[in-house]
Amino acid sequence: MKEKPLFKSESRFWTGWDWTVAVVAIFRSVEIPALVTLRFLDFHPRIESLLNLSASALLLADIILRLQRSIQTSRGPLHGAAARKHYLRTFFAFDLVGSIPWGVICNRLLLPGSGWTFVAFLCLFRLARVASLSRDFIRTPSRFFILRRLGIFLLWIGLVVHLVACGWVAVGGINPGLPPGRTYIRALYWSVTTLSTTGFGDITPKTEPQMIYTMLAMIMGAGLYATVIANIASLITRADTARAAFDEKMERLHTLMKYKKMPDALQRRIFDYHQYLWKSGLGHDHETLLKELSPALRRSVGLFLNHHILEQVPMLKGANTAILHRLISNLHTVVYTPGDVIIHHGETGTNMYLINRGEVEVLDPQQGCVATLREGEYFGELALLDPERPRQADVVAKTFCVLSMIDAETFTLVLRKFPEFAAHVRQVAARRLAESDQRAGRS
Ligand code: CMP
Predict the structure, then answer these.
(1) Residue 408 Cβ < 6 Å to ligand 1
(2) For residue range 361-416, what is the model confidence (pLDDT) as tens digits?
(3) Which of 352, 353, 392 to mutate to test the pocket of ligand 1 (most atoms within 8 A of CB)?
(4) What domain range is 422 assigned to?
(5) What separation in Å is there between the alpha carbon of 284 and the centre of ligand 1?
């Protein structure tokens, strides 16, 4: 195998299909060795043949489909003939050998119980596909990547322990005459103790083939044991690195606030602010993450992270993608805690804000609350439309707020370039200003 493909299905169908293939391949790799060595999982011959034939049909269909599918290799995606050639050169032979209904062939054509039945072990070739799917599964971005890794890791350990146990039965390591279930438990016990290099010595090799098999299992076990310990230890330590980093930051902040003798109420607000950032997933170091990406990738990530924010804003419904792109690349996310004054009445304005999450109150110094603005609405545009005009009201966070801040320069540029959009903003602004003037007139 030269290069393993990172099979990445975009559609749900392909994901479902890959899962089905993996489950069938795993089931066969568990069932057939157990069946051949200890007649365990021994279904009625007809059911057995049906199971075998349908599994093989599915796996063969998978080969046909894979010959049509695009693949993602570590050097980039491959389509059409190139993808086919790549598949034929890498996994095809393994998949083909692993898809033949060996169980049926062995039971029907070859003498059951003869050495030939071990041909059925060829179904294990299909595990190559499971290996590539496992790798793909681990690499798929997910919040639960540690759990995924642990799950895949345990799956493979389980498979190895099972196969080594079946092999031990095949070399006659367990006294004949016991029922299959009890034989299997003893073989499993031997497999676990040997692979974990514990080796209690209560089940020992008697014949030369058994000794050779035991030696091989012990050598494999030494490697496996080291990998298991190292992997599990590293997974457990990494499981909560993000949380640990957050706790450490809080610890440092706490010490600093105490040292600077900050009032308790202020300490509480700072603490609440960080808790909110953490809970809403905004506490991670997004800036550093983005800085490490290539400019093109950074732009795509920026677009992905912000497009939903702009889609929420009614005034931007129907705005063309050029406007959205321009806005998105200049958006800055800011978070306010309840009671924070975001805009002060009478000041000069340098930014406007889109409400991504939370609620704000527009407060007139004389009349109090004149409007409550929510997710999808915006404020702070009046001062930007006319630089001579100071802020018309205070804007205060009513709840925790996640806002997207747009600077005056971007706002003016977007308005200049897109007259239709500017007309819409001016229309809303005119209404707000009229209300504002009305208030000023009354007061
Ligand atoms: P600006 O004057 O820059 O800063 C205060 C903001 O409050 C203002 O822009 C508007 O976006 C907003 N605002 C003022 N009056 C109203 C109103 N009546 N309804 C909604 N928003 C308002």
Answers:
(1) no
(2) 999 988 889 999 998 888 999 999 998 999 999 999 999 999 989 999 888 887 88
(3) 392
(4) 307-439
(5) 32
Residue 189 lies in a domain: no
Residue 8's nearest CA partner among 131, 140, 129 is 140
Structural domain contains residue 239: no
Provide the 3-class DSSP secondary structure of residue 181.
Answer: helix
Domain stops at, among 68, 100, 129:
129
CATH of the domain at 430: 2.60.120.10
> Is residue 393 within 6 Å of ligand 1 at its C-beta?
yes
Ligand 1 centroid–CA 425 distance in Å is: 12
| CB of 349 closer than 6 angstroms to any ligand 1 atom | yes
Question: Pairing relation of β-strands 394-397 and 341-343?
Answer: antiparallel
Q: Which of 343, 362, 437, 438 to mutate to test the pocket of ligand 1 (most atoms within 8 A of CB)?
A: 362
Q: What is the pLDDT of residues 91-129, one digit of tens each?
A: 899 889 888 887 677 666 555 555 556 677 788 888 888
> Against a cut of 0.85, is the pTM above it?
no
Residue 40 lies in a domain: yes
The residue out of 129, 164, 189 marking a domain boundary is 129
CA 111 to chain centre: 48
User: Is 400 a member of any domain?
Assistant: yes
In the chain, the number of structural domains is: 2
What DSSP assignment string belongs to 334-392?
EEE-TT-EEE-TTSPP-EEEEEEES-EEEEETTTEEEEEE-TT-EE--HHHH-TTSPP-
